[in-house]
Design goal:
- The chain has about 375 residues and is an alpha/beta fold.
- It folds into 4 domains: about 90 residues, Chorismate Mutase Domain, subunit A; about 90 residues, Periplasmic binding protein-like II (D-Maltodextrin-Binding Protein, domain 2), CATH 3.40.190; about 80 residues, D-Maltodextrin-Binding Protein, domain 2 (3-Layer(aba) Sandwich), CATH 3.40.190; about 90 residues, ACT domain (Alpha-Beta Plaits, 2-Layer Sandwich).
- The protein is built from 12 helices and 15 strands.
- Strands 1, 2, 3, 4, 5 and 11 form a 6-stranded mixed β-sheet that branches.
- Helix 1 packs across helix 3, helix 2 packs antiparallel against helix 3 and helix 11 runs antiparallel to helix 12.
- It starts with a helix and ends in a 6-residue tail after the last strand.
- Bound molecules: prephenic acid.
- Prephenic acid binds next to helix 1, helix 2 and helix 3.
- Keywords: Amino-acid biosynthesis, Aromatic amino acid biosynthesis, Cytoplasm, Isomerase, Lyase, Multifunctional enzyme, Phenylalanine biosynthesis.
- Its main location: cytoplasm.
- It is found in: Cytoplasm.
């Protein structure tokens, strides 16, 4: 029998990788025990100082084995983030005992869209089993949840390159639904085409309007391209597959491209290097968020039109030391030049400061409504 040194080494690597997985699973088990002690002691899940010291020690330890500092840091950021999310999930499940274990979730489809990826990532952390429901517009998603056709809906709300998704903000203005979660996704746009295509041959590009807005610098380099808007990036991919020509392409994600059998001609060309989209999760029922984890509260408010009305509202938040993570305004339909403000706040709706601030806001604004309180997705150090 011939001795193949490569195969022998690969066998050893595979064996070590299996051990690594076992160790990570053991670490997660300990993290579960830790959260149970935290629940009993009523202390916050997050201990930034402990995380900092742990990573510092591990970097020093790694140095002895010639492991790169950045590598060790990145590795442990992922491991600790997973540990924090696990603890948050356990806490939330205890608090919301009636939360469903299996759920039907609507997203902007067909499968292979960014919304589909976001939905799957959120679901993996929250449910044992899901049924996917593909919708062709954001409005359909809101309606499906509202009518009880699905349990939850996932919609994008903002992107680091193109800003707010206005259509979703406008739907939030009139909805009875609640925001119960958020999830951020790194978006690496790809030019996807059939196997005979090349960048030089492309004449027509299909996608949802959002990717075009996020990649204007790149698109401007191809002034001859004909741009065609589709309902979603995945329907754009489907169109390219159906046309089966070498001169057409879609903008979408790599995983979606694989699903549709398309090759990547170019990627990573959004205006912002860190192209991130934040999605929100909608439900008919609000959830309770543990005060032991970091939470966000999103409110809608309409101020009067007198001078300083918005400043007065913001001062209420400042006086209560409440951090605003986002402030957006949208026209109120039917009332020209009147604006609705959407404010994302760091904090739990149940906290004394938040309750006090909301009470004061209600008394000085024309309208204030809580759209939801949900665990903050931002758990990286
Ligand atoms: O040591 C803790 O308190 C933990 O909960 C464990 C752990 C970790 O995974 O290392 C997770 C979250 C905390 O912010 C700190 C550390």
């Amino acid at each position: 029998m011939s001795h193949n040194p490569l195969l022998t080494l690969r066998d050893k690597i595979t064996a070590l990788d299996k051990q690594l997985l076992q160790l990570i699973a053991q670490r997660r088990e300990l993290s579960t025990q830790v959260v149970n002690t935290k629940i009993k002691a009523n202390i916050p899940v997050r201990d930034i100082e402990r995380e900092r010291l742990l990573v510092k020690t591990l970097i020093e330890e790694g140095n002895q084995f010639s492991l790169d500092e950045l590598f060790v840091k990145r590795l442990y950021q992922i491991i600790i983030e997973d540990s924090v999310l696990l603890q948050q999930r356990i806490l939330q499940q205890q608090l919301n005992q009636n939360a469903v274990k299996s759920a039907k979730i609507a997203f902007l489809g067909p499968k292979g869209s960014y919304s589909h990826s976001a939905m799957r990532r959120y679901a993996a952390n929250h449910f044992d089993h899901i049924e996917e429901s593909s919708c062709s517009s954001f409005k359909d998603i809101f309606e499906s949840v509202d009518k009880g056709l699905v349990d939850y809906g996932v919609v994008p709300i903002e992107n680091s390159s193109s800003g707010s998704i206005n259509e979703v903000y406008d739907l939030l203005q009139k909805t009875n639904l609640h925001i119960i979660g958020e999830i951020s996704l790194f978006i690496d746009h790809c030019i996807l085409a059939n196997n005979q295509a090349s960048l030089a041959k492309i004449e027509t590009v299909y996608s949802h309007p959002q990717p075009f807005q996020q990649c204007t610098n790149f698109i401007d380099k191809y002034p001859n391209w004909k741009i065609i808007y589709c309902d979603s990036t995945s329907s754009a991919m489907q169109t390219v597959v159906d046309l089966n020509q070498d001169n057409v392409a879609a903008i979408g994600n790599k995983d979606g491209g694989e699903l549709y059998g398309l090759q990547v001609l170019e990627h990573n060309f959004a205006n912002q290097k860190e192209n991130i989209t934040r999605f929100i999760i909608l439900s008919r029922e609000a959830i309770e968020v543990s005060q032991q984890i970091s939470a966000k509260t999103t409110i809608l408010m309409k101020t009067g039109q007198q001078a300083g009305a918005l400043v007065d509202a913001l001062l209420v938040l400042r006086n209560h030391n409440i951090v605003i993570t986002k402030l957006e305004s949208r026209p109120i339909h039917g009332n020209p030049w009147e604006e609705m403000f959407y404010v994302d706040l760091q904090g739990n709706i149940e906290s004394v400061v938040m309750q006090q601030a909301l009470k004061e806001l209600s008394s000085i604004t024309l309208f204030t409504k809580v759209l939801g309180c949900y665990p903050s997705d931002n758990v990286t150090q």
